[in-house]
Amino acid sequence: MIVDAHAHVWKKDPAWPDPAATIMSPASDVPLELLKRYMDEHGVGRTVLVQPMYPGEDNGLVVEAARAEPDRFAAVVCVDPREPERLDRWPCRGLRLRPAFAPETAFFESEPIWRKAADLGLVVSVLARADHVEAIGRMAARFPSVPVIVDPLAHPDPALPAPVLELARHANVHVKPTGYYYYSKQGYPYDDCAGLFQSVYDRFGPDRMIWGSDFPHVLLKSGYGASLRLFPTLTAAERELVLGGNAERLYWPATSLP
Question: What is the reported pLDDT for 24?
């Protein structure tokens, strides 16, 4: 089964104060039905719905989608890291922390939110940049039972050694080798990221690498289908892990057991 581990949906808000919060404008709907059409077209069986930068902490859309079709969708929500009890409002499979988002940088290492994630058995998805890697390592070490996924490789410079590689020593840290258009200096297929991908593969291995489309932003970049073809050097068995098995294990553990 192919699992898209990183997709966004939302309802429009033309009055949203920061129209640059997403590549796709907050003034336009990104409906679940549109995502479903892309899933069906490309044989994607499950999707992890990640709360986007917009619209803040109103996780209702992703939570309701996962509640209505739990075998098809899982929800990753956002709450104020200083108020972990807010997670009780949103039944979910994952929590998104965003140290790359300036208002949240200072609270990323707040232990109560990590402890709450551990108690609830959540996967922590981290929107990070290179200067956050050290902090991610500290929290991964303090909470080894919490699966951590770094999005998207902490925005590395493809011409330099990627700081995210330092996190490979933590067995609970996973990475999404995706979103190349955020940091590549070239267009699709992002040949300047080939060395980066190989170094990530060498350090983390295929069992800790997870594909996510970054829908709907990917539609304005490479296109949804093209994002599935970014890993030509993987074997068939490795592709099954990166394109589905690893995400299924983390977000649908009860259904991915042998």
Answer: 77
In order, the DSSP letters of 108-134 are TT-HHHHHHHHHHT-EEEEE--GGGHH
DSSP 207: G
Q: List the single range of 12-21, 91-100, 136-145 with lowest mean pLDDT.
A: 12-21
3-state secondary structure 20-71: HHCCCCCCCCECHHHHHHHHHHCCEEEEEEECCCCCCCCCHHHHHHHHHCCC
In the chain, the number of structural domains is: 1
Nearest to 90 by CA among 130, 63, 122, 55: 63
Share of the chain above pLDDT 90, in %: 88
Is 147 part of any domain?
A: yes
Quick check: 142 and 111 in contact, CB under 8 A? yes
123 inside domain: yes
Whether residue 257 lies inside any domain: the answer is: no
